[in-house]
Amino acid sequence: MKRTFEQWNNRWGAVALGAVVVLAGSALAFTQKTKDEGHNPPVNLAVDERPVNRETQGRASYAPVIKRVGPGVVKVFTTTKAHVAPYYGPPGMDDFFRRFFGDQFGGQIPQQQLRTPRQEGIGSGVIVSKDGYILTNNHVVDGADEVKVALQDGRHFTAKVIGRDPKTDVAVIKVSATDLPAVPLADSDKIEVGDVVLAIGNPFGIGQTVTSGIVSATNRGGGLGLDYEDFIQTDAAINPGNSGGALVDVDGRLIGINTAILSRSGGNQGIGFAIPVNLARDVMESLIKDGRVARGYLGLVPQDLDPALAKEFKLKDTAGVLVGDVTPESPADKAGLHEGDIITEFNGKKITDSRQFRLQVARTTPGETVPLKFLREGASRTSEVKVRARPGEEELAKNDNSKKAETDDNGTLNGVTVSDLDRRVRQELKAPESLKGAIITEVKPDSACAEAGLRPGDIIQEINHKPVKNAEEAVKLTEHPAEKKTLLRIWRGGVSHYLVVDESDENKAG
């Protein structure tokens, strides 16, 4: 899969790697479950967390390493079926409808139905357990109706998507096989700039290819628009089709999942990014165990320090994060943090900036109590904070796309993702403080919800005449429906109105 993101400096673009054809579906969907998730046993991984043997980095050949690792890197083929999606017209059409019919109709009436053709994609994956678990990128399998895997020895399997996490671009798929050639996992926190690395994948679908380079940087933000970015940067040649492939050290251990490149042309120019295997492993284990990723939450707004702010707060440098806001009754509030505090250390790790801080908090297990250090009016203080699970951002009918039997209940409002209302969202939407509900953050374009007129930014106030206060309530009200028609009361643009979403078989889109 190939996908272009925002331009850097109007010249450079960060390109996610993978299939030759872009897959249908949104990269913003929350983690999705499959049929038999929820209570899976822990995956049996081969882990080798010793520091890399740096005395061997000047070896004459890496052929022995590739012979061991190569069989564990696979080709991933995806297919997305043709489907019909509503089309709402060109930009500005919303204003046209509001002008003649009022705010309640703006953007709600599809102008026509567009048929999306069948699409195919190619990427890579890494076998991490002998019983068939494979790590790859979310953007490789996102929206795919069918996923197939080809091994180096010629075997082909149909794979099942165990879970996806668009916030880190990690996905886990599984094939039904045993005694597969799994690649051992290293401790990616122990790699250093200058370490030799090998990139293995399936560029342009031509077959397994190996390139070499070094670790150019660590803890890099790639500017891909992901919520959590902590990339390993490498100059090993990476090209479209390498997405989901392996970045290994000279001892043949997995240190990263190749994800993106920074390029003017769309091809390799020596700046590639890989997701550290420690982060990918955390996500994978959560997806396998729970079907979703539960992330830590503190309830504060972290702000980067620049030289001007550091001077005003009488700091020696810009390390740490400035607390810009604290949510009442949140873990941060209960730990005694105030606006204007500077957090310098969290859970034993020095804090450098807000990106790194958010990642450390997110990777903390909800319910865990961890120490933190901060400065207040120049004085150093310590406290403990009990990290909570991040509220909201739950997918309605959470088992959507799980391919369950037709007799199984898969809820209503499939393809809709919701989140809790917070201060920032209220300000952006100019929503009154008295307004209660759950905000829609995504609507899949081929869903009955999209056809009915739901769209991101709508606030669900009622579901079947029952009031909705937050995302959790919205999820519960869609889990066990009496029928497949759902009456919604939504708020949009200062006006509330009702609509009906019909997900009965005879009315499904596609």
- What is the straight-line distance between the termini? 23 Å
CATH fold-level name of the largest domain: Thrombin, subunit H
Mean pLDDT level: 81
**C-alpha Rg (nearest Å):** 24 Å
The helix-and-strand class reads alpha+beta
Largest sheet: 7 strands, antiparallel
| Low-pLDDT regions | 1-39, 100-109, 397-409
Name of the level-1 CATH class of the largest domain: Mainly Beta
Number of helices: 10
Notes on the structure:
The model is unreliable at 1-39, 100-109 and 397-409 (pLDDT under 50). The chain has 10 helices and 31 strands. Strands 25, 26, 27, 28, 29, 30 and 31 form a 7-stranded antiparallel sheet that branches. It has a 6-stranded antiparallel beta barrel with strand order 11-12-13-16-15-14. The protein folds into 3 domains: 3-79 and 121-290, Thrombin, subunit H (Beta Barrel), CATH 2.40.10; 296-389, Roll (Pdz3 Domain), CATH 2.30.42; 394-507, PDZ domain (Pdz3 Domain, Roll), CATH 2.30.42.
Topology:
Layout: E1 3-8, E2 12-16, H1 63-69, E3 73-80, E4 83-87, H2 93-101, E5 112-116, E6 119-127, E7 133-137, H3 138-141, E8 146-150, E9 156-165, E10 170-174, E11 196-201, E12 209-220, E13 231-234, E14 246-249, E15 254-263, E16 272-276, H4 277-290, E17 296-297, E18 300-304, H5 307-312, E19 321-326, H6 331-334, E20 342-346, E21 349-350, H7 354-362, E22 369-376, E23 379-386, E24 388-389, E25 394-395, E26 416-420, H8 423-429, E27 438-443, H9 448-452, E28 459-463, E29 466-467, H10 471-479, E30 485-492, E31 495-502
Antiparallel strand pairs: 1-2, 2-15, 3-6, 3-8, 4-5, 6-7, 7-10, 8-9, 9-10, 11-12, 11-14, 12-13, 13-16, 14-15, 15-16, 17-24, 18-19, 19-20, 20-21, 20-22, 22-23, 25-26, 26-27, 27-28, 28-29, 28-30, 30-31
